[in-house]
Backbone:
């Protein structure tokens, strides 16, 4: 019989793989290309597969951009818009989030847009519990250089903003 701590660890790892379906779980991945038709904010876009048909809502994985009503929200959306709007991107999707958006890595000409957003200071590396996220080093470099959101010493993360104010659909 396995010790309780080992059973708990196995269960936690299985739950994490099931819920998050990380990029390493190849069976859940779907690669596709499309044209960005709309940029909602700094981490959400609409993409028409092969440039045709109905656009799919896509959340860029690994980042958390400011809410549109939050300081830096409009600048974050504009930065992403400048990069990807009406351009062909390659996506690697592995699941949907709680809002029905495809959760995907987004590449433009081979460049990771999540990485670009964090490096430029337009988004945070997405944290989950004690995991600092995939772009922690780039976030710290942007903070040290005072780029984008990090030009202000006390930039508030979207997670903290939502806790204090709710989403932008609910007045602060």
Residues:
């Amino acid at each position: 019989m396995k010790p309780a701590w080992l059973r708990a660890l196995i269960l936690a790892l299985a739950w994490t793989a099931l819920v998050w379906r990380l990029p390493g779980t190849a069976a859940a991945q779907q690669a596709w290309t499309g044209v960005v038709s709309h940029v909602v904010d700094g981490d959400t876009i609409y993409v028409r597969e092969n440039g045709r048909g109905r656009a799919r809502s896509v959340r860029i994985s690994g980042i958390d951009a400011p809410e549109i009503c939050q300081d830096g929200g409009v600048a974050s959306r504009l930065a992403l818009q400048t990069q990807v709007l009406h351009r062909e991107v390659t996506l690697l999707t592995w699941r949907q989030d709680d809002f029905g958006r495809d959760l995907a890595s987004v590449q433009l000409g081979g460049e990771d847009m999540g990485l670009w957003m964090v490096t430029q200071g337009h988004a945070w590396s997405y944290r989950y519990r004690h995991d600092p996220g995939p772009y922690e080093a780039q976030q710290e470099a942007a903070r040290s250089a005072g780029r984008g959101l990090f030009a202000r010493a006390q930039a508030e993360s979207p997670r903290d903003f939502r806790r204090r104010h709710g989403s932008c659909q609910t007045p602060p």
Observations:
- The longest strand covers residues 30-41.
- Residues 4-20 form the longest helix (17 residues).
